[in-house]
Amino acid sequence: MTEPVLCPADPAPVTLIGPPLAPGPLVFLGDHAGALIPRSLGTLGVGEADRRRHIALDIGIGQLGRLLAEHFGATFVSQTYSRLVVDCNRAPFSPGAMPEVSDGTAIPGNTDLAETVRADRVAAIHEPYHQAIADLLAGRRAAGLPTILVALHSFTPVYAGKARPWQAGVIHGGPGSDYGRRVLAGLQGVQDLTVGDNLPYAFDDTDYTIPRHAFPNALQWLEIEIRQDLLGTPDQVAEVARWLAPVLRDAMEG
């Protein structure tokens, strides 16, 4: 018998912060908010410095999600474990869900994984996270509450040797993205802020969370990316929340 992915001493794979039946529509998601690795997996063969890099988590998003949830009296659904264990914004059995190499760093603990091992990680972490989102949405729907999904992500200032000038990026496309386009317009009006329109990433078929939860429920949604050098300290994260929150609020009125 193989050792369970999560043991009783490991934290739960998902945390809900804030009231699930908040009257306001915003629900914040942190697909890559956590950086923990289950005890059963050790370090995945990855050094400590790399386990703090963007390959392991979306830096700053855990705190940003908490601040925004507190500001709006909303819910933040936060993933606990590192995206290197299983990426919850990827189809569970896709190659990108458990990468063998990420941004040039080998992940020995993900090399030549058996399908049973992949299935165990999905069952322990990926599916409980998405089931928590589905249950939250079902509860809100039953209560007659409107919902807008806001998936929070962060990105590196430099990737593959190229500097990224955008301080924030709005990812939109497909059904339900009117809210995202209004947020894009609002951020473009923030003084001294350089905003990417589907940059540094664009919505594509690698995205999993929004297609799984927003599309079948006909929800408005937004994926927003914040550059990680703006999220390096608690004060910096608070400053991002300060200029982001009014834009998210105003876009609800469009």
If you had to describe this structure to a student in words, what would you say it looks like?
The protein has 254 residues and is an alpha/beta fold. The chain has one domain: Zn-dependent exopeptidases (Aminopeptidase, 3-Layer(aba) Sandwich), CATH 3.40.630. It contains six helices and eleven strands. It has helices at residues 48-51, 61-72, 115-142, 178-188, 209-213, 234-251, and strands spanning 14-17, 26-30, 75-79, 101-102, 105-106, 148-155, 158-159, 162-163, 168-171, 195-197, 220-227. The protein has a seven-stranded mixed beta sheet with strand order 1-3-2-6-11-9-10. A two-stranded antiparallel sheet has the order 4-5. Helix 2 crosses helix 6 and helix 4 packs across helix 6.
Which descriptors would you attach to this protein?
two-stranded antiparallel ribbon, 31% helix, alpha/beta
